[in-house]
Amino acid sequence: MKKESWRQPYSLIIVAMAVNAALYAAGSYLTAYIPSPWGIGQFRPAVVVPAFFSVIFGPWAGGVGAALGTLIVDSAKHGGIYPGSLLAAVPGNFIGFFVFGYLLRKKFNWARFITVTNVALILANVIVAFLYVFTYKLLYMQSSAFTQMSAEALIVLSLGLTVFWFVTMLPFVLLIVPALVAVTAKAFPSIVPEEVRINGMKRLPKRLLGASMIVPGIAMIAIGLTVTFASLSSYLPTNLAASYFPAATLTLIQILLYAGGATLTALGSIFIVKKSTH
C-alpha cells in the first residue's frame, strides 16, 4: 500500500496566504518610492517574503499571498484599487511564485532552489513588465507617451524593466531565503515539509550559487558597455520616446548596469573562491 504523502492543513495554508500578503505589502511599501531608471516599477527586495512562503507552504500560499500583497501595496501607494496592479503585477506575482512553490514542492534541494529562483523571477518579471507596458499603459490607459512609441521601443522598455527587477531581486532571494528556511526548519519543524526540513540545515552549493550570480553579473556589465560605447547610447534617446531615455535616464541605466553587474560578479566570485579553498 502506497504511503500517503505529508500534507499541511488547509487552515495553515490559508493563514500563510494572509501573513504572506501582509508582510509582502509592508515590506514592499518601504521601497515603494524607489523607482527604476525609467520612472516606473519599483525596487522590491521584499520578494524574499513570497519566495520564503512558497518554499515552506507551497505554491498556493506563495502565489496567492504574493498577488494579494502586491495589490495591497500598489493600491495603498496610489490611494485606491490600482488597475495597473490588477492587470500586470497581480497575475505576474501569482504565476511566478506559484511556479516557484510548485517546482520546489515536487522535489526540494538547494541546487534546485537556485535554479528555480532564476526561472521564477525571470518568468514573473517578464509577465509583469510586458503586461504593464502593453496592457495597462498602452491599451488600458492609452498613455500618449506610450502610444507614440514604436513596438520596438515598448519591447526595449519592457525588457529593461525585466532586467532591473531580476538583478535587484535575485541576490536577496538567494542570500536571505535559505537562512530564513533554516531557522524556520529548526524552530518550527512540524510545519515544514520533510525534504525542506532535511535540506534546511545543509549548506548551499557554493559553486552553483556563485555561478548563478556571476553569469547575470557579467551580462549586465556587457550590456552596460554596449550602452556606453556602442550605438545603443545614441539610439535610445533619438529613436525611442525621449521622456523615457533622456541623458539623465541613460546615466542611471549605466550606473545600475555597472553597479549591479559588479556586485553580482563580486558576490559570485567570493562564493566560488570560498568553495575552492575548503
Overview of the molecule:
It is a single chain. The chain is mainly alpha-helical and 278 residues long. It folds into two domains: 10-202, Arp2/3 complex 21 kDa subunit ARPC3 (Orthogonal Bundle); 205-278. The protein is 78% helix and 0% strand. It is built from eleven helices and no strands. It has helices at residues 10-30, 48-57, 59-78, 83-106, 110-140, 144-147, 151-187, 194-200, 206-229, 232-239, 247-277.
Question: In a few lines, what is going on in this structure?
Answer:
The protein is 78% helix and 0% strand.
CATH structural fold name of the largest domain: Arp2/3 complex 21 kDa subunit ARPC3
Q: Would you identify the CATH architecture of the largest domain? A: Orthogonal Bundle
Report strand %: under 5%
Low-confidence stretches: none
Number of domains: 2
Largest sheet: none
Q: Please count the beta strands (DSSP E, at least 2 residues each).
A: 0
Rounded mean pLDDT is: 87
* H/E element sequence: HHHHHHHHHHH
Counting helices, strands and paired strands, the structural category is mainly alpha
State the end-to-end CA separation.
45 Å
Radius of gyration, whole Å? 20 Å
Helical element count? 11
Helix content: over 70%
Q: Give the overall shape.
A: globular
* CATH class category name of the largest domain: Mainly Alpha
